[in-house]
Design goal:
It is a single chain. This protein is α+β, with helices and mostly antiparallel strands and 314 residues long. It has eight helices and 13 strands. Strands 1, 2, 3, 4, 5, 6, 7, 8, 9, 10, 11, 12 and 13 form a 13-stranded mixed sheet that branches. A hairpin with a 5-residue loop joins strand 9 (219-222) and strand 10 (228-236). It is globular and about 65 Å long. It starts with a strand and ends with a strand. The model has no long low-confidence stretch (mean pLDDT 93).
């Protein structure tokens, strides 16, 4: 087994790895990973992606890549083919990524949410560096409306509109407000500031990592002054499956049915687009959100872990 930098390979070297990864996403999570795989292949072909491939002889059996932004490194993906998947091989790839990021002194933090990673808990010991671990759930529900899931009457001073770019600035401020001190801001530091939230929202809207953005299934809740006080952003991750990429409510309005109605309308619109199922991810410690999702029939179908390393070189 040996490692090679992705920049020294051509896109054909990853073909079988990406084919297997797409099949695994489809089978486990009902998610079409093809757009993301095509993006990886394109950047590898351009020799423009930082990462490593794991080779057994001349056969590529796994890969990982990362991106760096300001003070943070983000491990975008890590996958090892079934026949070679083991804690040793996954830690080999993950450790190589961390060691490379350590060489950039301005990188003070590394985040990873790797849904296809087999490592769990204390097994994650890449290069001897243990992360903070946050268990997360991948939940799935039928898109059709079950009996009892009825509309709620919102406060008269609130109205719902389709989300658009004109709400981007207010949505960024809302996200920074909602997640202040929240466990999810420990997982993703983009939640700390409106500027970070802007990068997070632009990734949802413009890139395929969370599926294809659905404007018709994305809504904003506005108060009487026209301020964004609630938000749901939805995507289509396959022809049959939608995804709730973001839902948040201003703290002073939580518990008044706004989150319920945003989720209900988002799911109904996804169903109208052809979705038979709708998925979402949630941090296991967020019991309040999980109770709401369970009311809509969401069930945990897969569990994974968000990983955070900080100040690796001290």
């Amino acid at each position: 087994m040996r490692l090679m930098e992705l920049r020294s390979l051509n896109s054909a070297a990853l073909e079988r790895v990406l084919e297997e990864e797409c099949a695994r996403w489809r089978a486990m999570l009902h998610w079409d990973f093809t757009p993301s795989a095509e993006l990886v292949s394109r950047y590898v072909g351009m020799q423009a992606l930082d990462g490593f491939a794991l080779l057994d002889g001349d056969e590529t059996v796994g890969y990982t890549y990362w991106v760096a932004e300001e003070h943070k490194g983000l491990v975008g993906d890590l996958y090892v083919r079934d026949a070679w998947r083991s804690p040793v091989n996954e830690n080999l790839l993950l450790g190589a990524a961390l060691e490379q990021l350590r060489r950039s002194p301005w990188i003070q933090r590394v985040e990873a949410q790797l849904l296809q990673l087999g490592l769990r808990g204390q097994q994650v010991a890449a290069a001897g560096m243990r992360p903070r671990i946050y268990p997360r759930h991948f939940m799935l529900a039928q898109a059709k409306q079950p009996a009892g899931r009825r509309p709620v009457q919102l406060d008269p001073e609130l109205r719902l509109e389709y989300w658009g770019s004109r709400w981007l600035d207010q949505s960024c401020e809302l996200i920074a407000e909602v997640y202040r001190g929240h466990v999810d801001s420990e997982i993703n530091d983009q939640y700390h500031t409106p500027a970070g939230a802007r990068r997070f929202l632009q990734n949802i809207v413009h890139y395929p990592g969370c599926g294809h953005f659905s404007p018709a299934s994305s809504l904003v809740a506005l108060d009487a002054a026209g301020r964004a006080r609630g938000l749901v952003l939805s995507t289509m991750v396959s022809q049959q499956c939608g995804h709730i990429a973001q839902i948040c409510i201003s703290p002073e309005l939580q518990g008044r049915g706004i989150g319920y109605e945003l989720l209900r309308r988002g799911m109904e619109s996804l169903r109208a687009e052809g979705a038979q199922e709708v998925s979402l991810t949630v941090t296991a410690a967020n019991r309040h959100a999980i109770r709401l999702y369970e009311r809509f029939g969401y069930q945990v179908v897969y569990q994974f872990e968000a990983l955070v390393w900080e100040r690796l070189w001290q």
